[in-house]
Design brief:
two-stranded antiparallel ribbon, 70% helix, 5% strand
Amino acid sequence: MADDSAFQWLCDQLVASTVLDELEARGTVRLALKQVGHPSPSVGSETLAALLREVLPEELRLRGVEESEALCARLVRDLKSRPA
């Protein structure tokens, strides 16, 4: 799966689970993707899982999201069980 649906899924999860609104969630994920050299929102589950483990916990913490590491770990698990 390499399309915008994985990106949108992650943004939707961040909006539902954090204080971020849709624009903030999308911007945060886009910035994190740029940090790892992937500027496009067309990403697959593997890239998002790596992003959730390596970059997003700190990005979310900087934006006032409490327990960002636990949230990202849960989202990795949810991502793996997400229908393709």
